[in-house]
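Hi all, long-time lurker, first post. I run a small reading group and we've been trying to get comfortable going from sequence to structure in the token notation. Rather than ask abstract questions, I figured I'd post a concrete chain and ask someone more experienced to write out its structure so we can walk through it together at our next meeting. Sequence below, copied exactly:
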Amino acid sequence: MIISRGAGILAFLAFGLAVGIGAFIASAMGSNPGESSWTISIGMLVSAGLVHLLGQYLNVTRPTAIFERVRGRHLGEVSTSLAKDGLPEPLSLSEQSPLTFEESAVLRRMKNQHTMFWIPMRWYGLVFLVASLSVANSSLF
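-- Answer (accepted) --
Happy to help. Here is the structure in token form:
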């Protein structure tokens, strides 16, 4: 049973897609996928980068930006420029007044909402990198 929260299942699907694309490329080149596992390794390497970037965006960048925008507008700490929605653009968190303990707790709860097996999605990029290197290493022998 796969236990995921949010979009964490995308890490699992990206891994399967990477292996499938690598096997497809190997068969399109006219070789057996077992003999040319370097194509699978390259697919897993690309998948590792994409999963890490997507996980970083979903788990850290986006929640922080949402919190920054809502908090800045709530406290009235805004710049003179207007955002796309016509409201004043909030200051960044580093320019706003320091976070209270409660606000820090809210920001922590907003992060890492996309997990698989309780591991944040961005760390699966490292898992895929190690798997890619092990597949590449096994193809050398």
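A couple of things your group might point at:
The chain is about 60% helix and 10% strand.
The chain has one domain: 4-140.
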